Amino acid sequence: MNAVAPLPFADLTPAPVWRHFATLCAIPRPSKHEAALRGHLAAWAAGRGLATEQDGAGNLLIRKAGSPGRENEAGVILQGHLDMVCQKNGGTEHDFHRDPIRPVRDGSWLVAPDTTLGADNGLGVALALAVLEADGLSHPPLEVLLTVDEEAGMGGALGLQPGWLRGTRLINIDTEEWGHFYLGCAGGLDVNVDWTLPNEPAPAGWTAGRIEVAGLRGGHSGIDIDKGRGNAIKLLVRLLRDLTDAHPGAFRLSGLGGGTARNALAREASATIALNPASLADLQATLAERAAVIGREYAGVEDRLSARLSTGAPGEAPSPILTAAAQAALLAAFNAAPHGVARMSQSVAGVVETSNNLGVLTLAAGRARANFMVRSLVDSAALAHARAIADLFALLGPDCRVTTGDNYPGWRPNPDSPLLALAQQVFAREFPNDNGGTAKVEVIHAGLECGIIGAAYPELDMLSFGPTIRGAHAPGERVEVASVAKCWHLLTALLAALPAR
Fold this sequence. Notes:
Elements: H1 15-26, H2 35-47, E1 51-54, E2 60-64, E3 76-81, E4 104-106, E5 109-111, H3 119-133, E6 142-147, H4 155-158, E7 169-172, E8 180-185, E9 187-196, E10 199-200, E11 207-214, H5 232-246, E12 251-258, E13 269-275, H6 280-297, E14 306-311, E15 321-322, H7 324-336, E16 340-344, E17 352-364, E18 367-376, H8 379-394, E19 400-408, H9 418-430, E20 440-444, H10 450-456, E21 461-464, E22 469-470, E23 478-480, H11 481-497
Parallel strand pairs: 3-6, 3-7, 7-21, 8-20
Antiparallel strand pairs: 1-2, 2-6, 4-5, 5-23, 9-18, 9-19, 10-15, 11-13, 11-14, 12-13, 12-17, 16-17, 17-18, 22-23
């Protein structure tokens, strides 16, 4: 497999891993659009004489016989997902369905400055492909399971073909902190709001305007939910409420847009408005004052937060606006709607148990749509929190339709896992200078496919690890180069050490 884009990988090791990652950077792979990459990898595997299969959900399975003398051992599954979160900074010209990812080297890191990098989970996929390519490794029979649609609802794992997998142990390579072994994860579900609100023409003489909130850090809606970062949607709604209170009747909403992904913290949001030109200066002054207050609240966390009000071209007619009552209801509802940590775990110290992310909100032509992604280590708690959100919006009457779906189970930890015990032994032997030779065992407040796969294959012994990735699900995502080589070393040493049964 050859890299097809001029990317800064020439001096990186291990070369096969980075060569495969270069290919993943070159072939676009948004969620639900992995077909080109899947076809490329299937052809590559067939060219090496490896058996490939695809199930009805679009997942790709590549099989390789055990190395000489290990052909009859119990098999192991290496698992990752093909798709990536597609986020870019405002003003960045990038089409994730067409353009390659263009990383740059920044010291000890590889980074995509203005887009997501796709190290989540491209490097896990690249590590698994490099294992398939390396003929000199000692390993039991291998199955490399490459799922689709992980980032947009776990569709590939949920649709996994029954009875497909033969291995008894599974190594998920989708963890984002080197030196950590994950043994459990949150499950979750979505709450979707679809609300029809009444419109009316803007008053004569009013002009079009736009209020924007930008500059937030964003991040992963599970891993970063407890970092105290701002949500651009929530902050925009707060500012709109403040402006309404300070200047009644000075402006009205015609549109909203905030966030772009259910599993990413919203970095930017904007409102299109109609405003009384006589109130422009007062609105701008109040916006600056209230934004400064918020800036002080988020000092040290969101130091690039900005909010501004601009007007359209002279004579530009504003779009139809919400009625005053509809605007009040919309802002009140989303101001009251929860976002963030709901409860910390009582059984796993320092880990979020239950949270939700208001990831996307749009308003156009009187129709508001929103998505909340709920996560929890406790499946019943996820359902209860989702119901509370749904009940809030159900109070708004029959014009507000609320649905829940895309449920996926959590991964219940098994501290007695033989695979974990072996991995700890191998880590201590191979990396005595990393954390004193002791990998940290954790449960993560994010969705790994292990929970879904484990529900379908309850006898599987599972473990997850991976390289150090920062800023997953946000522009500027980066991976620590040295941690990739360490993951390769650990993975190959663990495969060599696996017992026959």
